[in-house]
């Protein structure tokens, strides 16, 4: 009997090759020990994208990291942007009891028509530029109230001094009391909006070149009639999200009652959100060639190149210059900001070990077979 098991131990490879039709039997018996070492658990890599908060503007320190722009309005608006001290002293800028950062157009001073038309005195307003510059990121602006009204032209946007070489992104912008937001991009020649694209809004011009079409740029209008203006404010505002990376620049608007849970929890996941209302794709515009080193800007101008030239067509009273003379016309020209949070994209390379059971059971069983034979021969 001992000889039987010793013989079986040595001849089991022969049996395997003799009966190749036995499914898996050859592999079961003849897989060498060295092969067992080579059949190891395989490393499977998975890239997971996380958005990690990098900076926050909110509460009592909101205005600490901003410069107040005090030059003449580059868009020829009938405003005088004031410095920080004047803005706080005259109540144009302050933090509310709820912790909101408010910025107003002067709505209590009256001017004469001669002052406005001669530009000897214009309506005080606020324009601020972030001290920090950004390249890529996820920007979440929580707005409780945004300016609107005849003659007003508010904007939340980004650019730098090297305009338009380094691009311009208009995230919130429109004029008068329009009810739909317009996202626009202004660049050097060669950047185009691809249509149809990965967005739900209505595309206008597809040429982003700021040197043509009176600097219209390429724009997309949000289909929501509550993404700008009085209805936006009546609904308590909401969140504007702008995601900027090498692939695209995407903009979403979420009503206050429809803000994604991941945003509320501080763990934004744009990949789970619905289609953006606007998107500029690298397919038509290599993003990193046209947008860089952006500072964030809030402003509200009056009349000027857009609100002034469109004034007579929207049913507002008199002329835009006449409107600017009366402060009470601008009681709704107010930004009220809950917060602006900037997140950086972080790609984590996670991995796990994957080894199929079918890959390892044969060598294990081969070793087990041999061990049993040795044990039984010793026992007998």
Can you offer a commentary on this structure?
- The structure is a single chain.
- The protein has 380 residues and is an alpha+beta fold.
- It has 2 domains: 2-41 and 356-379, no CATH class; 48-347, Jelly Rolls.
- The chain contains 11 helices and 18 strands.
- It has helices at 2-18, 25-30, 33-38, 84-89, 113-118, 229-234, 261-264, 287-290, 304-308, 320-324, 357-379; strands at 42-58, 66-68, 79-81, 93-95, 101-104, 123-125, 127-130, 137-145, 152-159, 168-173, 182-186, 202-203, 218-221, 238-244, 248-255, 278-281, 295-302, 334-354.
- Strands 1, 4, 5, 8, 14, 15, 16 and 18 form an 8-stranded antiparallel sheet that branches.
- A hairpin with an 8-residue loop joins strand 9 and strand 10.
- Helix 1 (2-18) runs antiparallel to helix 11 (357-379).
- The protein is globular.
- 37% of the residues are buried.
- Residues 2-39, 357-371 and 374-379 have low confidence and may be disordered.
Task: Give keywords.
Jelly Rolls, eight-stranded antiparallel β-sheet, ConA-like_dom_sf, hydrolase activity, hydrolyzing O-glycosyl compounds, 2 domains, Glycosyl_Hydrlase_16, 380 residues, alpha+beta, disordered C terminus
